[in-house]
Amino acid sequence: MRLQDKVAIITGAGSGFxxxxxxxxxxxxxxxxxxxxxxxxxxxVAKDITENGGTAIVDVTDVSSAADVAAMTKNTLDxxxxxxxxxxxAGMPQRNGSMFDVDEETFQKIYDVNVKSIFLTTKSVVPVxxxxxxxxxxxxxxxxxxxxxPGLVWYNSSKxxxxxxxxxxxxxxxxxQVRVNALCPVIAxxxxxxxxxxxxxxxxxxxxxxxxxxLGRMNTPRDLANAALYFASDEASFIxxxxxxxxxxxxx
Length: 252
Description:
The chain starts with 6 loop residues before the first strand and ends in a 6-residue tail after the last strand. Helix 1 crosses helix 9 and helix 3 runs parallel beside helix 4 (104-132). It is globular, with a radius of gyration of 17 Å. The chain contains nine helices and seven strands, in the order E-H-E-H-E-H-E-H-E-H-H-E-H-H-H-E. It has a single domain (7-237), classed as 3-Layer(aba) Sandwich (Rossmann fold), CATH 3.40.50.720. By secondary structure, the protein is α/β, with parallel strands linked by helices.
């Protein structure tokens, strides 16, 4: 069990990549805080974990709210007494289209959920890790940060910020034994998929996306979860500041 008795907070864990990581981490012995703005989704994932012998609690959090994030940290400590792993996974997509079609409210929401949330969780959770003598942070970025394409300008830039934040955090927190890494997935079948396709999901559009991935298929939550598991485990104890592509060769 690679994460035996570790406590992991995973934001956006009610579906998609977050759900995949929550389930995979629980399989390896971690106690999971299933954090999501959607309570019913979080309950479903937590139930799945507990019914399969794992340990999980539900936490309803808007990651763009400082009060909610503080409550998430408190709920975790009240339940488990520690925080070993923080996965900043909650994300906000941009509908594929002209950069000029995105209004200010949508732009702000993209940055609040994708970027500000990491600022808030860092301020709330990392002090706990420092008191414990170490910890592990995994930020979910995107291939959009490394190989941006037209139609997703503001989303691309928000994920670029995530990669830069990851590297800067890694350097600053390394002396305190807090590791910080990022994962950069390519498109997958998640709740965001149709937005990245421009609001229309057709086989033709899917084939177009897949044609850009050398391994010839979309990402899956399990693909990302396995990569996250490596970063979260002691096997990666000397790895920090890395933004690893989980993309079937998309960024080559």
